[in-house]
Amino acid sequence: MDNEFEMGTGPKRFTYHELARETGDFAENEKLREGGYGGVYRGFLKDSKMFIAVKKVSKSSKYGIKEYASEVKIVSRLRHKNLVQLELLLAYEYMEIGSLDSHLFKAKSLLTWGTRYKIAHGLESALLYLHEEWEKCVLHRYIKSSNVMLDSNFNSKLGDFGLAKLVDHEKGL
């Protein structure tokens, strides 16, 4: 993976200090959500003029270094319009509308049937890419509404690859 960083083909590398600065030192008012791994914080990259979401694994996390390494290894190599891009902490593309579960279960907004279809179609496109179109088969293994993120146009993007597994197409499952 270090070779990919050096060649500029992998994800951009940030220092802890840079990500802390961009998230207001992981301020509570920048926290987007809390999961089993730790918190996700909103940040802003001034150079790129873009918002990011930074996953900070806590010391009390029930997920370990194996899941963290798996997520970095897999997500850093994937490129598809319906997958959240990894931009280590993990810094992701920020999805301002939030996750699908906030719209389905927390009454953040009412989703029309057209929007629901668009979200489902985007998720289907991401899964087709992961299972058949990429050089290896990626089994996500943790698809749930809180891992389906929505951009400002309600395009769905699949995130959280901590439990993902790479499988050769020829070997199958």
Automatic annotation (TrEMBL):
Residues 26-173 form the Protein kinase domain. It comes from the Eukaryota. InterPro entries: Kinase-like_dom_sf, L-type_Lectin-RKs, Prot_kinase_dom. Signal peptide: none annotated. Pfam families: Pkinase. Keywords: ATP-binding, Nucleotide-binding. This is L-type lectin-domain containing receptor kinase IX.1-like protein. It comes from Tanacetum coccineum.
